[in-house]
Design brief:
Elements lengths: L2 H8 L24 E4 L15 E4 L5 E6 L5 E5 L4 E5 L6 E4 L5 E6 L5 E5 L4 E5 L5 E5 L1 E2 L2 E2 L6 E3 L5 E5 L2 H4 L15 E6 L4 E4 L8 E6 L5 E6 L14 E7 L5 E9 L8 E3 L5 E5 L2 E5 L5 E6 L4 E9 L2 E8 L2 E7 L10
Antiparallel strand pairs: 1-24, 2-27, 3-4, 4-5, 5-6, 7-8, 8-9, 9-10, 11-12, 13-14, 14-15, 15-16, 17-18, 18-19, 19-20, 21-22, 22-23, 23-24, 25-26, 26-27
Amino acid sequence: MSRWLQSFSRSLCTGLLMAGVGAGSAMAGDGAAPRVVGETPGFSELIDDDAAIEKLYDGGKWSEGPLALPDGSVIWSDIKNNRVMIWREGEDVQEWLRPAQFHNGHALDHKGRVLAASHGKRAVERLNEDGRWEVLVDLDGEHKLNSPNDLVVDARGRIWFTDPTFGIDVPEEGYGGRSVTGGEYVYRFDPDSGELTRLTTPAVKTPNGLAFSPGERTLYIADSELGHDREDASLNHHIVAYDVDDDGALSNERMFVEVSPGVPDGLKVDEAGNVWSSSDSGLQVFSPEGQRLGRVDLPERTANLAFAEHEGQHYLFVTATSSLYRVPLNIGEARSERN
């Protein structure tokens, strides 16, 4: 991690509509303690049945976009309070950035610089070595983006991001506005060339979280269309998978899984290819074939997650409504290198 970044980083309700999660699942807000629920043999190889799940912070309004930094700290967005928080082991949680232009998702580029999906700027921006935020992309042609939501960096350094309208539709999550791109899309941006590519993903109506399989041969995209109107059960709440070729083109669109209760939001993939998805009841874990392996039930609606490793121990940091949780794992994150 570069010195400049080290220095800067120091400075039930609606979910009840969707009943398909299975017997015994905790619902968001029911007050139950976090718990691990294995649904298939071998789930304990990913996470211990009695894993010590810690709540590290509970003072947020809508927690999103966690990112583990190389120094062991974790930043995440408190979107509706327009700030980014930082957690460090053994220290009090502090504000890392305020105002934060209603950041949502975060990622690191290949130089260790923080990238942010900014609702407020309707852009993807980057924290440069001089401590200033630079807008990398905010236009699709001549049209302003909606409100970039989540992003991931591939092995070639290209930034893949989703652009639903939540940040301009929800008054507390941005500065408002109207959609002018003609829809909600997934994009690939090359920061070296400045080229922006709108990807063709017809099965995805409201793209949200996204993640690559090991080797980047599959891209998973969460469709959170139900988030626009949680009383309309006909809206999408599924994850769609695509094959990815060497040039980044997508093909073989297919339904991966439907997620209930609520919607899939943030996604991550572990080194064995299992997909970890947020939901209204906590985390749900699916094999590469789409079989649900188990759950991590949490007492709050869960938004996003980030892998981390410290002193040989793997973790997930999970943002859920007002809180940040740490979940010890027995497996790490998928590697980004293409095979």
